[in-house]
């Protein structure tokens, strides 16, 4: 956690600084707005605390113009309501009265650093993904995370970071699809003063901001192929060139990347560099869609119901049996993101002691209808077919064997008979999977039962 305090360090701000450092924050101090902007350009920060007496609107406008997305919190002596309102209207996210309350400072820091996108999973198909993620987390290998939109790729990336040797260093995320091509190079690599119109000062990019930590390149498939060449050099050499710069800058980062496209197919089409794909795809984590993770649906629904009840100051309520049935049977084409939005809406619409099926509605207010048995059969068939695409024969065979073993509660003899193979062949396969660190059901258990007790 990196905190920048802008304002002259009187007694109250010194106290705030000490409280923040006691909570593990690295604190930088600047006397005025311009000095604070220079610190942000040079080092970056996760949070800015600024004296309410300084021109906060000037600071917020400058951050917006330079695409610096660091949240700003105003602070001032006493409980001056007018000053607080003016600060919020100027663009501050919060107002903290001074002298500071240690618990309030801690709460603000926790709100900034806490990952609200909790990683919740229970399904056996996710267990394999999580096991592999944990296995490679402590290495510095690049990881490519793929899956449909809304499956939780960035959440998994943060999970890998928190279990890595860089967990106490910055985690910086760049959405390559949300930034125009003309600006993405500067966003990633930084720029020198005068490099282009609007470059009013030198500014570090996301590579330098993530130095020592992890850089996530979200939706990397949207990056222009010409910029991919510069990215490849940065990954290979661990040096970058700022836009308009003349001296290379060394960086020490671990790179994670996500995509909802098949990058091998994009490479064949010439829209993604094959050599960059090899550099990124040292380890591949494929997130299955929510419809292929049935055990996760109700687990996530319960999590979101609790989360949004707390966020809206509402007593937590369980889902009724009918609501649970409806949620479990819905196809969720928008994956976890759609489920989250639906449960947020349900928490607000529910009126009884439980969240009933009537509160489970689409964005336009229509009741969410359970699919017919025929529709569910079609969805299941389509999901099974989609599950094979882009996967190797060995991966499909492994999943078939492990799922069959789960079905047989770990009984090797029954599983071998269903699969049409000898018990010896089955045991050899299971030994291979165990040696590779892949969970295998013990007799009398499924992998999920073994994991959850």
From TrEMBL:
Domain of life of the native organism: Bacteria
Sigma-54 factor interaction domain ranges (all copies): 119-348
Transmembrane segments: none
Pfam families: AAA_lid_14, HTH_8, Sigma54_activat
Keywords: Activator, ATP-binding, DNA-binding, Nucleotide-binding, Phosphoprotein, Transcription, Transcription regulation, Two-component regulatory system
GO molecular function, one term: ATP binding
PROSITE patterns: RESPONSE_REGULATORY (PS50110), SIGMA54_INTERACT_1 (PS00675), SIGMA54_INTERACT_2 (PS00676), SIGMA54_INTERACT_3 (PS00688), SIGMA54_INTERACT_4 (PS50045)
Sites bearing 4-aspartylphosphate, chain numbering: 51
SMART domains the record matches: AAA, REC
GO biological process: phosphorelay signal transduction system; regulation of DNA-templated transcription
Ranges where the Response regulatory domain occurs: 2-113
Record InterPro entries: AAA+_ATPase, AAA_lid_NorR, CheY-like_superfamily, Homeodomain-like_sf, HTH_Fis, P-loop_NTPase, Sig_transdc_resp-reg_receiver, Sigma_54_int
Protein name: Sigma-54-dependent Fis family transcriptional regulator
Species of origin: Methylobacterium currus
């Amino acid at each position: 956690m990196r905190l920048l305090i802008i304002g002259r360090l009187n007694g109250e701000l010194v106290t705030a600084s000490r409280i923040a450092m006691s909570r593990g924050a690295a604190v930088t101090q600047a006397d005025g707005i311009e000095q604070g902007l220079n610190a942000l350009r040079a080092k970056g920060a996760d949070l800015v605390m600024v004296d309410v007496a300084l021109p906060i609107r000037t600071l917020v406008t400058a951050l917006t113009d330079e695409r610096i997305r660091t949240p700003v919190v105003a602070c001032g002596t006493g409980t001056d309501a007018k000053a607080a309102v003016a600060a919020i209207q100027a663009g501050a996210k919060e107002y903290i009265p001074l002298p500071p309350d240690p618990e309030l400072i801690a709460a603000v820091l926790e709100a900034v650093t806490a990952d609200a996108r909790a990683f919740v999973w229970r399904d056996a198909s996710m267990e394999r993904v999580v096991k592999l993620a944990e296995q490679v987390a402590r290495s510095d290998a690049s990881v490519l995370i793929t899956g449909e939109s809304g499956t939780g790729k960035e959440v998994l990336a943060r999970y890998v970071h928190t279990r890595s040797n860089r967990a106490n260093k910055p985690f910086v995320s760049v959405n390559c699809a949300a930034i125009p091509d003309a600006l993405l190079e500067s966003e990633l690599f930084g720029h020198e003063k005068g490099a282009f119109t609007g470059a009013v000062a030198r500014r570090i990019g996301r590579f330098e901001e993530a130095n020592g930590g992890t850089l996530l390149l979200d939706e990397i498939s949207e990056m222009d192929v010409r910029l991919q060449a510069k990215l490849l050099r940065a990954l290979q050499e661990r040096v970058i060139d700022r836009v308009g710069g003349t001296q290379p800058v060394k960086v020490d980062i671990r790179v994670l990347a996500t995509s909802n496209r098949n990058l091998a197919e994009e490479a064949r089409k010439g829209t993604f560099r094959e050599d960059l794909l090899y550099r990124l795809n040292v380890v591949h984590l494929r997130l299955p869609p929510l419809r292929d993770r049935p055990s996760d649906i109700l687990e996530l629904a319960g999590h979101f119901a609790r989360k949004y009840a707390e966020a809206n100051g509402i007593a937590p309520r369980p889902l009724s049996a009918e609501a649970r049935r409806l949620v479990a049977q819905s196809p969720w084409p928008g994956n976890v993101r759609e489920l989250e939005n639906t449960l947020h809406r349900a928490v607000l619409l529910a009126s009884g002691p439980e969240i009933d099926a009537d509160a489970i509605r689409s964005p336009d207010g229509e009741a969410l209808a359970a699919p017919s048995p025929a529709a569910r059969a079609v969805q299941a068939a389509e999901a099974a077919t989609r599950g094979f695409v882009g996967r190797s024969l060995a991966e499909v065979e492994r999943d078939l064997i492990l799922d069959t073993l789960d079905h047989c509660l770990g009984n090797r003899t029954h599983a071998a008979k269903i699969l049409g193979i000898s018990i010896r062949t089955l045991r050899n396969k299971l030994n291979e999977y165990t040696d590779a660190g892949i969970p295998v059901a013990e007799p009398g258990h499924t992998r999920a039962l073994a994991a959850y007790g």
